[in-house]
Amino acid sequence: MKVILAQHAGFCFGVKRAIKMTAETAKNSQKEIYTYGPIIHNPQVVEKFEQEGVYQVSDIKKIEKGSSIIIRTHGIPPEKEKEFSKKCLNVTDATCPFVKKAQKLAKKLMLDGYQVVILGETEHPEVQGILGYTDNKAIVVGNIKEAEKIKKCAKLGVVVQTTQSMQNFLETVSVLLDKTPEIRVYNTICDATKKRQDSALKLADKVDIMLIVGGKNSANTKHLAELCREKRVPAYHIESALEIKKSWLKGKTLAGVTAGASTPDWIIKNVIKAITAPEGLSKSGLIGHNKKS
Ligand code: SF4
Q1: What is the whole-number distance in angstroms between the Cα of residue 175 and the centre of ligand 1?
Q2: What is the mean pLDDT of residues 44-61?
Q3: Annotated active-site positions, please?
């Protein structure tokens, strides 16, 4: 089996930055430190940090006053930032600058009198953070169907979750054009997302099977898998080599591998190794023991 790795795959600028900031904070701290939610959406990286004394919390009431906390790459709403500053001694802001840009633009649109629309996944932490910057007044839509339900209004302002696909963005904006005589649209999809999507699509055209590697909770990895599936090539979203099944590879000669922006190199390398040497697969069809099966 031959394998081609997508030209752009794996860690992006924002994730590398957050990991560096977290590692430095952990190194300089004598005590346990905390991240609000997972620092990035990759369980293996989060687990590795836990071994170094970096723990994720979902409720800061549970941590001691004066602790150190790191704000995740996806950002948080401003009211949470205030809460953190009151309770914690050290607050390290690892919010990706591209997410910060979307937060600032959403706030500006709100202050300029626009009904803000955020294109993204309602429950995603990044979208919740951006929503907070509009005093929770923005409308969140995930696709054309939801955009169609928006009532007509005088001024609409649009920002996008950084990991959305360009196709969904263009389609949704075309529906919003009919809702208002005045629309201001900011394309806040980040460059890393676009590059990963474009190179995954290019690769999916050439191969017999696509493996998309990354956290099951990673929005950008999920979008990569959805895009590849639209190319009608068998496409599997896996977190690690442990999930690969022998049956997927049967009769295939060329595999494509891509990975979300929060997937570390060592996981990608393990996946490539597993496909190029499928004799390592166990009789059950899995490589090693799969906790999820
Ligand atoms: S995918 Fe883009 S927005 Fe998200 S952390 Fe990476 S660079 Fe930042």
Answers
A1: 26
A2: 91
A3: 126
Q: Which ligand 1 atom sits closest to the C-alpha of 12?
A: 6
* Selection from 138, 243, 257, 234 nearest residue 186 by Cα: 138
As for ligand 1, residues whose beta carbon falls within 6 Å of it are 12-15, 73, 96, 98-99, 162-163, 190, 192-193, 220, 261
Q: For residue 96, report the distance from its CA to the centre of ligand 1, in Å.
A: 6
- Considering the entire predicted model, what is its pTM? 0.84
Name the 3-class secondary structure at 65. Answer: coil
Q: Which residues contact 152 (CB under 8 A, 6 or more apart)?
A: 179, 180
| Residue whose pair of structure tokens reads 């626009």 in the numeric block | 114
Q: Which of 162, 186, 263 has the most ligand 1 atoms within 8 A of CB, as the residue to mutate? A: 162
pLDDT tens, position by position, 101-137: 999 999 999 999 999 999 999 999 999 999 999 999 9
**pLDDT tens for residues 188-200?**
999 998 999 999 9
CA 190–ligand 1 middle distance (angstroms): 6
Q: Using one digit for the tens of pLDDT, what is the confidence trace for 20-46?
A: 999 999 998 888 899 998 888 898 899
The Cα diameter of the chain in Å comes to: 63
Domains annotated for the chain, with CATH where assigned, are: 2-10+192-280 (3.40.1010.20), 13-97 (3.40.50.11270), 98-189 (3.40.1010.20)
Pairing of strands 54-57, 33-36: parallel
Q: What is residue 35's DSSP assignment?
A: E
For residue range 158-192, list pLDDT tens digits in order: 999 998 989 999 999 999 999 999 999 999 999 99
- Tell which one of 12, 95, 100, 103 to mutate to probe ligand 1, the residue whose CB is within 8 A of the most ligand atoms: 12
